[in-house]
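User: Please predict the structure of the protein below. I'd like the answer in structure-token form so I can feed it into my own downstream comparison script.

Assistant: Understood. Taking the following sequence of 551 residues as input:
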Amino acid sequence: MSKRRRESDESDASTRKRRQDSSVGPVDRLSSLSNELLLHILSFLPISSLSVCQRLSRRFSALSGDSELWKRQYYTQWVRPRARRLASVRRSSLPNKSEYSPKVSTWLDHGHLAADGKVTNWKGQYRLRHNWSRGSCRLSEVEFPPRPYPPVLAKLCAGIVFTADADHGLQAWAAKDPAICLAKVLFSKGPESSKICPTALAVSDLKGSQEIVVGFENGHYNRYIMETETSQLEFRSCHKGSGEEAVTAMAISSPYLLMVSHDKLLSLHHIHPGKTSEVRELASLKADNVIAPMTLSLRTSNSEIVATIVYSFFHIGCGWSLGIQELHFSKTGQQLQSRLTSTVDSQYGIRPLRNLPSSTKRRHSTMADPRGQSETEVPVMPSILHQQPPTSMSYSHPYLLTSHADNTLTMYLVVSNSNDLFVRGGQRLWGHTSSVSTVQVTNRGKAISVGSRGDEIRIWELEMAIPSLGTSRPFNEESSIQVNPENKEEDLDFDSPSKRSRPEDRDFEIDSDLEQDFPSSQQCVGFDDERVLLLREKTVGTQLLECYDFT
């Protein structure tokens, strides 16, 4: 007869078994899987988990950094939400098969990333967009010589910053490192050897090169070509403008050039491609009511050229308003039509009568109801009232953006079709804590605004404001992002010249007696997908080119 096992013996055995199991540790069920299976599993993880996986081992670091994983994350975070937003604005629906597609050429406004032979670092691209969405960047500065008169002109195009002033001529700088001067050409190569001041600058991006046009105070303008591959800046030709006074504004869309002189003469020119100096004036018009600030725009199609001039004027009812004149030319320079509109109706909250002839619209003092059922009286008081002229304006079709001294911006949507030209709605944009000195907007609705003190730069996505146009629904500060350089306080000290980059050929000393506090002025040189460049006058005789890098 067998003896019964004691209960104490059984408990001891179970305890030893648990200890053995605990010494083995958790079972690793992932390392034995193939890379294909692991990539499929990682594709379901959020960004925070992918970042953790990169710190586990070399294998997981390589797998979690796979470009296709980040490409899908990029699409989910940035591409698809924008497509949904635009579909709701246009009152359309997305196709049923609008899920992720590996073909970047099918993504909205991402064709530049699908160029032949171009390999995109999707993790870096995701980081770039993430930094833009949070305003995170690094700030670097380049100090320029004492401010000449007129001040330095600057433009950003295809990763190159072009500056123009009377002392140093036309210079090209690398946007990645603005302290590096790529090329330089003095203005004395023109027919007049005397020093003249540049008053306007325009740049157009060509295949493998950039075309630069500089306008001067004597009404002349010079043409230059910058070869991207060799970084050679070459003077091409000098021409006399249509006006007798200084060139005040220019817009270029090669091979066409639009310019305005100080005597309010608007002229359109055709620039012959190649190394020849032939420039033909296509049209010239005299303007009587153009008041600064103003902006020019030039668009081309297969059949016509559309030149647009936006200017400010005072309206007795709603204060300072904007006038928009659109001129249509054929390729030979024949004027096809001229159309004029303003922002007055939008400032009153009136929707345009698009179904009536333009002559009938001017005779009507009432406005048809949006549903077409009845007529509504024109409001007595405007919803948008500006007592002071705009401090700056920017127009990139269809977006028109102005800045004001009352800490606000105003956005308009310009609609131009074969039958009509009108402004759809107007929306005040809030978020700045001081007067806004300058704005720039792209045709995709991305905008940069700079406060008058220079320490507040905000990023706007104006596509999000389209649904609120013409309504009382505000577009608040939460809809914009303030740029916050990570290294501004720790690396940069405006009072310490030793902490600023300075080009070698621009070494100079500033008299300490002149260093006193003055209101800073700034000019937004431009921005692209990776950076914002700002030209700022900090103190007397001190000009800084600031580069805000989001990479």
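That's the full token string. The radius of gyration is 29 Å.
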